[in-house]
UniProtKB/TrEMBL annotation:
GO terms for molecular function: L-rhamnose isomerase activity; metal ion binding; xylose isomerase activity. The keyword Kinase does not apply. InterPro entries: L-rhamnose_isomerase, Rhamnose_iso-rel, Xyl_isomerase-like_sf, Xyl_isomerase-like_TIM-brl. GO terms for biological process: L-lyxose metabolic process; rhamnose catabolic process. Keywords: Isomerase, Manganese, Metal-binding. Residues 68-280 form the Xylose isomerase-like TIM barrel domain. This is Xylose isomerase. It comes from Nocardia cerradoensis. The gene is xylA. Transmembrane segments: none annotated. Its EC number is 5.3.1.5.
């Protein structure tokens, strides 16, 4: 039976897309940071900007922090500020990659002093979670080697396991550890958590509250990401996404920009597993170097919603029948019928039902918010990467 648009709109309301605080600060490549007028000067202003995205999409009620990029003396106050602005603090991201001590790694470093420093930072991030009410700690390690023989591959895995276990033990009963993998960069020969398999092995050893983060930009070309998603869902170990684009490598551009069909295929696995509105977090991990930041984040949220709406439109019964009958072309047609549907009217209708403007980008532009912050804010902060 074909899916009704009522059912699609109801399911879409369950989809929450979490925003990264760093998407709102100045950022750039290693060649140049193009400063934009009116960018936030502190974590409070980043949250205020993120709240604008939620205001016009109704789909982004949580903001991820990155510590120490979002350092403040009073995290409780920051959490309360978020709530006052209609959002809340989501995942806490650690940073063990921007310190001279981490030249040879952080938790995998051969020197126990450096490892201790990195672990202490991760424990401090759990303190921030306690103060802000955040439930998830996201760990990405830049650790790795540039040359064969530079360090012992297996010893580094032992050090990693030891560090993860100490931090896992510190988590509260409702808190989770989310481990992100990345194929390469900044290390070029061997990365200590390069793939989903390595991340999953560590999570399985740690316990049930450890799960894997799939950053869509962190794979080799042509990797079948939806297969990884299906596999992790099957094991109950898909913790979160870092959604972004991937033209050549980890570009951190708008989700769905390079390959909207891939985003659809990923969301199709999520919908098939009934995983919307559950424990999987749908986060953006983006930086906007040349485009206006708030509008770019709104556009990204809409891209994820469009891919999800198409996935929700897949006629599962017809697909199942075609699969059972070995009808290869029929099964493909069912999937493509959904993908080829223009879901923009459906999403506009859904927004109107929620009391929102059907066109979030136009509504934000008309609000005058961008002009008012340009007038108020002078000397915007770097997002972190461009610092
Ligand atoms: C690393 O490339 C990464 O994807 C990690 O998630 C970091 O925390 C994030 O980028 C920061 O932009
Ligand atoms: Mn990421
Ligand atoms: Mn990345």
């Amino acid at each position: 039976m074909a899916v009704t648009s009522d059912a699609v709109r109801a399911a879409l309301r369950e989809l929450r897309i979490e925003l990264p605080s760093w998407a709102f600060g100045n950022s750039g490549t290693r060649f140049k940071v193009f400063a934009q007028a009116g960018v936030p000067r502190d974590p409070f202003e980043k949250i205020a900007d993120a709240a604008q995205v939620h205001r016009y999409t109704g789909a982004a009620p949580e903001v991820s922090l990155h510590i120490p990029w979002d350092a403040t003396d009073d995290y409780r106050q920051l959490g309360a500020f978020a709530v006052d602005h209609g959002v809340s603090i989501g995942v806490i991201n650690s940073n063990t990659f921007q310190d001279d001590d981490y030249r040879l790694g952080s938790v995998c470093h051969p020197d126990p002093r450096v490892r201790r420093k990195a672990i202490d930072h991760l424990l401090a991030c759990v303190d921030v979670m306690d103060a802000t009410g955040s439930r998830d700690l996201k760990l990405w390690f830049a650790d790795g080697l540039n040359y064969p023989g530079q360090d012992d591959l297996r010893a580094r895995q032992d050090r990693l396991a030891e560090a993860l276990s100490e931090v896992y033990d510190r988590l509260g009963p409702e808190q989770r550890m989310l481990l992100e993998y990345k194929l390469f960069e900044p290390a070029f020969y061997a990365t200590d958590v390069p793939d989903w398999g390595t991340a999953l092995l560590h999570c399985l050893r740690l316990g049930e509250r450890a799960a894997v983060v799939v950053d869509t930009g962190h794979h080799a070309p042509h990797t079948n990401i939806e297969f990884i998603v299906a596999l992790l869902l099957r094991e109950g170990r898909l913790g979160a996404f870092d959604l972004n684009s991937r033209f050549y490598a980890d570009d951190d551009l708008m989700a769905g920009a390079a390959d909207p069909f891939q985003l659809f295929r990923i969301m199709n696995e999520i919908v098939a597993a009934g995983a919307i509105g559950g424990e999987v977090r749908f986060m953006l991990d983006q930086c906007h170097n040349i485009e206006p930041k708030i509008a770019a984040v709104i556009r990204s949220v809409m891209n994820v919603q469009e891919a999800t709406a198409k996935a929700l439109l897949v006629d599962r019964a017809a697909l199942h029948t075609a699969q059972q009958e070995g009808d290869v072309l029929g099964a493909r047609a069912v999937l493509m019928d959904a993908y080829d549907t223009d879901v923009r009217p459906l999403l506009a209708e859904s927004r109107t039902e929620m009391g929102l403007d059907p066109d979030p980008i136009a509504a934000f532009a008309r609000s005058g918010y961008a002009e008012s912050v340009i007038a108020q804010r002078v000397g915007g902060a770097a997002a972190g990467w461009g610092a």
